[in-house]
C-alpha cells in the first residue's frame, strides 16, 4: 500500500474475499474509529475502509485540509488501490459532500461506484450561509452539543477539547465553504439517508440529491436528528447489506 493509503485508510476487520468494498467518510470532527462498529458488523461480507482525515487521533500533528475538494483528492489517491472490485461510498454530513466529490473523481478515472450513501447532508445544490467555523471555542462547542455528535464527557474535558477543536473548526470551514456547481451530476446512484428532525438537512434538501445523479435515486427517512444513525445502527446496516447484495448481483 502507498504511504498515503497507510495514513488515510483504516481496515479494522479486513475482508479480502468480500465482493464489495465500502468506503466510509466521517463527519466534521469525526474520525475513522466512528466506523469501527460498522466494520465489525459488515465483515466478512463487505470490506470496510474507514478514512482517517489529518489533524485527529494518531494524525493529530498533521496539518488539516480545509476544503472538501482537497480532502476528496487525497481520499481518491488513498482508495485507488482498492478499486479492484465494486466500491460503495458512505458519507455522513461533511463526509457526504466529500463522497460526492470522490465519486466524481472516481468516475473521471473510469470507476463508477456502486452507490453513494449520502447521510445527514443537504444536496450539493442546496446552500446555506453558515459561519460556525468563525465562532469562538464556546460557540463551536455549543453547536456540537446541539447536534449531539460528540460524547458529552469529551465536551466537558478542557484538555481533550483543546486537542480536537482545531480539527473540528477546520472541518466546519470545509463544509461551510463548499460551493460546487449546482448542475453537477453523477452516474453513480445516490441513496439519501436522513433524520426526520435534522436541523442541518430538511426532507426537501435530502430529496434534492435526486437532481445530482443520472443513476437510480432512493431515500430513507429515520427518526431522529443530525446523528439519527447512532440510534438506528441495525436498520442502517441492514439497508446497506441488502442494497449492496442486490446491486452487485445485478
Question: Which secondary structure elements does this structure contain, and how are they paired or packed?
Answer:
Blueprint: H1 3-8, E1 9-10, E2 20-25, H2 36-42, E3 46-51, H3 68-79, E4 87-92, H4 94-108, E5 116-119, H5 137-147, H6 152-155, H7 158-176, E6 190-195, H8 203-207, E7 217-222, H9 233-249
Parallel strand pairs: 2-3, 2-4, 4-5, 5-6, 6-7
Antiparallel strand pairs: 1-3
Helix pairs in contact: 3-4
Protein name: Thioesterase
InterPro entries: AB_hydrolase_fold, TEII, TesA-like, Thioesterase
GO molecular function: hydrolase activity
Question: What descriptive keywords fit this protein?
Answer:
250 residues, alpha/beta, globular, 38% helix
Q: Residue-averaged pLDDT, rounded?
A: 91
How far apart lie the N and C ends? 30 Å
Q: Low-confidence stretches at least 5 residues in length (pLDDT < 50)?
A: none
Instruction: Return the structural class.
Output: alpha/beta
- Identify the CATH homologous superfamily: Alpha/Beta hydrolase fold, catalytic domain
Question: What top-tier CATH class fits best?
Answer: Alpha Beta
GO molecular function: hydrolase activity
Domain Thioesterase TesA-like: 23-244
Organism: Streptomyces radicis
Keywords: Hydrolase
